[in-house]
Amino acid sequence: MGPHPAVAAIRLAVRRVLHDILNDSKPDAEPVVLVACSGGADSMALASALAFEAPKLGIRAGGVTVDHGLQPGSDARAEDVVLRLTALGLKPVESVAVDVGRDGGPEAAARDARYAALDAAAESHGAAAVLLGHTRDDQAETVLLGLARGSGIRSLSGMAAMSGAGGRYRRPFLTLDRQTARKACLVQHLPVWDDPHNTDPAYTRSRLRHEGLPALEKALGKGVVEALARTAQLSRDDADALDTWARDAAESVRDAAGLLECAKLYALPPAVRRRILRRTAIEAGAPAGALFARHIEEVDRLITGWRGQGEINLPGKVLAQRQGGRLVIRQG
């Protein structure tokens, strides 16, 4: 008799990702793959599947848990996760404590600190990849948050199955729902920890999870999560195509001195033009995370609605101004 369907589903998802990692690795190498584990159901299910599948493929599997220090006893909880991962047979396993700042709000600051710690752990262990337990439900929430921000099609594309420097981060569970991961833990008798922040209405994602999505399903019927996840993939495909178009067009709209020519920019479709403006602003020093759609729209009006406006102040002390038919974006 084979494994429970939930266990079989998570193992298959992980096996597919591990095969991709092997195909990207050097021949005869023994890649190291880490799982980022909070102790919650999603990441514990992921850790168990990695521990089961990796040895069969000649992959060394380890784990890392990040202690954000935001709750009493978080250090003891992190050590407990280390014990659980070690019991699964993962090695190396470590706990990393981080200091969470305040930039961008508590959720964004915690995320930034977490990814910085995971990057450092991956570098330290020479890991080919770090697996993350984001599910289809997480994807749906991310799409709705992007829609609420009005940040454009890229934010609607949600989380990529592969992201980070060199494709370091892999998300095997984006096609699986949260209940599958929880069921897999239940039938394998894996203890899980439910983070109280996930039910705290002070956090935007928590309110969306427990109030927003249920209200949408009540109004629109079941299938909202699946539809949002499908929207993410379709949006990602469109955004990737537009990004490629913008990269190819970027040089054709510059003069011999490398300055952007307003007339040539004006002739481009708005979606392509704004991508060129955004990339130019980031290259000038504007932080990508602080550069919002409204900033790019203001710069865009220097091209499409020119009435002698003054310079535009962008994040990172970057200035954008129109000078004699040219658009100059530079450090102030």
Automatic annotation (TrEMBL):
Keywords, sorted A to Z: ATP-binding, Cytoplasm, Ligase, Nucleotide-binding, tRNA processing
Keyword Ligase: yes
Class of this enzyme: ligase
Source domain of life: Bacteria
Primary location group: cytoplasm
Catalytic activity, as annotated: cytidine(34) in tRNA(Ile2) + L-lysine + ATP = lysidine(34) in tRNA(Ile2) + AMP + diphosphate + H(+)
Stored SUPFAM superfamilies: Adenine nucleotide alpha hydrolases-like, MesJ substrate recognition domain-like
Free-text note on domains in this protein's UniProt record: The N-terminal region contains the highly conserved SGGXDS motif, predicted to be a P-loop motif involved in ATP binding.
Homology family: Belongs to the tRNA(Ile)-lysidine synthase family.
Protein name: tRNA(Ile)-lysidine synthase
Species name: Streptomyces endophyticus
Gene behind the chain: tilS
